[in-house]
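Fold it.
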Amino acid sequence: MANILVVEDEQDLLQVMSLKLMREGHSVFTAETGQEALLKVEEYAPDLVILDVMLPEMSGWEICTQIRQRSAIPIIMVTALSGDQDVIKGLDLGADEYVTKPFQLSTLVARVNAILRRLQWDRDVAEKEVDSLKRSITGLVSHELRTPLAAIMGTLDLALQETFKDNHEAQRDFIHDARINV
């Protein structure tokens, strides 16, 4: 399924979230500090980051900002900070979702799945657009190649007709002139 980075300094919660996501079929990487999280984002290029706000050394706000400067990886902030200003700050910094503690694991998994569905849909749309462009380009190139080929084929058909049946020199000159004109 997806590669998910879970950044949480509470060891018990980190393990519970990781196990639940692994049972759902995801590959899970974990980090307990901001520096570790940023290194793992670079190393693993996860499909999604679940990020606590209150971490030692570097806050989740700072981590979110740094991730956003480099990537569009979806981020779900998971935190005890539940005030409206905290939610707005998280979303303004680039979080895609904001889940307040305590929460049900099933709710977190549902939000993860919703984001991953949208991500897959975006990828599918982009792939279809690329395929459509490839077909358009192939059609244009094909047309650009067919046009001169039609002229060449017409010339060769004339050269093969009875007109030059016994006159090989005239046939050779005709083909030579046709080649120069193409």
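The first strand starts at residue 3 and ends at 7.
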